[in-house]
Write a structure and sequence with these properties.
One of its GO terms (molecular function) is hydrolase activity. This is Alpha/beta hydrolase. Keywords: Hydrolase. It comes from Paenibacillus thermoaerophilus. The protein is α/β, with parallel strands linked by helices and 242 residues long. It has one domain: Alpha/Beta hydrolase fold, catalytic domain (Rossmann fold, 3-Layer(aba) Sandwich). It is built from 9 helices and 10 strands. The strands form 2 sheets. The protein has an 8-stranded mixed β-sheet, with helices on both faces. It has a two-stranded antiparallel ribbon with strand order 8-9. Helix 6 links the parallel strand 5 and strand 6. The longest helix is centred in the middle third of the chain and has 19 residues. It is globular, with a radius of gyration of 17 Å.
Length: 242
């Protein structure tokens, strides 16, 4: 990706004061080439905002897809996270999950839609995240289906809490999910222990299929690293914006 058309990005930084979180939340907002306030755009809400932009190269990917592959332009909102609090916010049984999820649903989305020409329709919002970021993205959709129905999960940390939640659901035919997992993710070390993410994702896939999720499942050689995820991210974006 040496073409400088791909690396010339418009990214606006915001600090959002929250009544639900104990500190303001930093955001970075990517505006697509040709951005026009008289137009309207889908919005991608990304967990681990700094990593998603720096290691996932999502803005560079979007520029290329828009300029070269005629993918429809979208706004991208990267949500920063304090990594010392990441597990407590992103894990569905974490002590800060409920506050974080409510923040996204009731503070972040209205904040963005009041300031940018975002399409205010559930079909035009996409959640994306890696590992626990994929987990929280899925659970945000499960908890707020009237806001989110499109999810990209890059090697989601779909542990027992997620499987139990899926078992309690009936039909999830409204949910569109792009699920990636690497065959080299057999021993992934986390704050909660070492897990076989490949088997956990295969089990989650079975639950998704039983619940009639509109699923795209991608399993291929890859490790639990951004080097793997960022290579697959363009296909995920095209699945929802192509």
């Amino acid at each position: 990706m040496s073409d400088n058309r791909y690396t010339q990005r418009t990214i606006v930084k915001h600090t959002l004061t929250s009544g639900l979180l104990d500190a303001p939340r930093e955001l970075r907002v990517y505006l697509p080439p040709g951005y026009n306030e008289l137009s309207s755009y889908p919005v991608i809400y990304g967990q681990d905002g700094e990593d998603l932009f720096n290691y996932g190269r999502i803005a560079t990917h979007m520029n290329r897809l828009i300029l070269d592959e005629n993918v429809q332009p979208a706004i991208i909102v990267g949500i920063e996270v304090d990594k010392s609090k990441r597990t407590s916010e992103y894990a569905p049984d974490g002590s800060r999950y409920a506050a974080y999820a409510q923040f996204v649903a009731t503070e972040l989305v209205p904040y963005i839609e009041a300031r940018y020409p975002a399409r205010p329709d559930v079909t035009e919002r996409i959640l994306v995240g890696d590992s626990l970021g994929g987990t929280v993205s899925l659970h945000l959709a499960l908890d707020y289906p009237y806001l989110f129905q499109n999810v990209i999960a890059l090697s989601g940390a779909f542990l027992s809490t997620t499987h139990e939640r899926l078992a309690r659901e009936s039909s999830l035919s409204w949910l569109r999910l792009w699920q990636l997992i690497g065959t080299d993710e057999r021993e992934v070390k986390t704050e909660r222990g070492t897990f076989d993410f490949l088997e956990l994702n295969r089990t989650a896939r079975e639950w998704f299929e039983r619940r009639n999720v509109q699923l795209t499942y991608v399993e291929k050689p890859g490790k639990h690293l951004w080097g793997f995820w960022q290579q697959e991210l363009p296909e995920a974006l095209k699945a929802f914006l192509g």
